Amino acid sequence: MKPAPALAEGFPDLSGMSIAREPHWFRWLSAALIILVLAAIARAFANGQIEWSYVSRFLTAKVILEGIVNTMVMAVLAMALGIVLGIVVAIMRLSPNPVLKTVAAGYTWLFRGTPLILQLLLWFNLALVFPTIGIPGVWSARAVDVMTPFLAALLGLGINQGAYTSEVMRAGMLSVDIGQYEAAQAIGMGRLRALRRIVLPQAMRVVIPPLGNEFIGMVKATSLASVIQYPELLHNAENIYYANSRVIELLIVAGLWYLLVVSILTPLQMLLERRFARGTLRLAQ
Amino acid sequence: MTKPLVAIRSVAKNFGEFQALKSVSLDVWPGEVMCLIGASGSGKTTLLRCINQLATIDAGGIWLDGELLGVREQGGRLHRLGEREIGRQRLKTGMVFQRFNLFPHKTALENITEGPVQVQGRKADEVRTEALELLRRVGLSAKADSYPAQLSGGQQQRVAIARALAMKPMLMLFDEPTSALDPELVGEVLAVMKELARSGMTMMVVTHELGFAREVADRVVYMDQGAIVEQGRASDVLGAPREERTRAFLSAVI
Q: Has keyword Transmembrane (chain B) (predicted)?
């Protein structure tokens, strides 16, 4: 074997040298500027006409706590309704049946195309259109008794959410490789079973981040139900400031609670994502 | 007198203007290993997909185990079968795909048990025992709890073969089972298929592995432009082709 050719001169060995720390002047400067701006804002609020004692007193007031409970109950129920509707509508949209397809597209068009607050008001005022509702000959009731603020908010928020969720679900199902449908069919599965056992579990992985987005949106959208007298957080905060005129203080109370809830939801979403990531990560073998 | 397991009569299939199959007729006999060869677009994969009804035929008929596939004759007309009936007919065939199509959210074992438990409604523990035996047969006993992403291509395809066998099919369809594999992984999949052929399984294999065809196939069918050009014993079709088109294809491949 021939010896390796001699290396050229003029290229010294650098292996002993360490890399010097960069000064990062701009980082220090920008941090100082930001702190200054934040301090100015804090000072303005501290000297402004805000009675912080009201904020801390009402932060845990019974009415406010009831409000946040009602907000969360409504957000969870309306989102559940939205997801069920969304899955059904997405499956209809992807079905070969033209009637189901058209109905699904029409539903999405109608409920995405009108403002949510308008839909809530329509549900709440349904009694103006149908004084009594029911199944002819079986059961009937006065619409004003049935269409409580709770039910109107649930229907309004849930059905509207279904229109958005259906598109998220459809995107998730389309992201699953066509070969997965074929493999499911090849072992004798029908369309619905293949969707339930094979396609939806894989689609979930894709749809959880956008659904988390949608749920956070839903938590805040429940505040619109304040216009139809549903006793959620903002509605209860408003009721308090109508009485004591501490408007900003109570809006800050409500804002802090929304921030807290949303902050808790983010790590919960990560747990869910991990659950549905089965098999997709190259785990330790 | 034995009957063919698969009888294909004057089958045509179009994709828009493109004629994928032009009046193909063919018999596959019980226990026969048939290799379908030909250039891409020649219709061999489409023919397999028509047999397990992933594609619907436009004309002609296919009988599997004496039963007409996909349609029912009544009052001189053909009526399409419902999804449930088609699902039942599909259980007689097992399909192995070029790109494996294992379910990525299920382990190797769960991939195999899914069909027997969910579709055939069989007992989970009994199916599990059979599935472990199938994994042993394809040489993957140690990988029962691995997810597809943790397996090599060759291992995935062997799990896919086990998954198809778990349904106890009468006929196995292989659609270019080694085309998506790195060269060094082809052998392990072909070995499993050879073992399966020796066990007496009826097999239709779309392949470019002429060595496999020569060694294992009872019959080689050469297709071109949606039609069968030449068929016969592997040694004849591959060794001494009669048709000019077959000769041209073989000299291009080898």
A: no
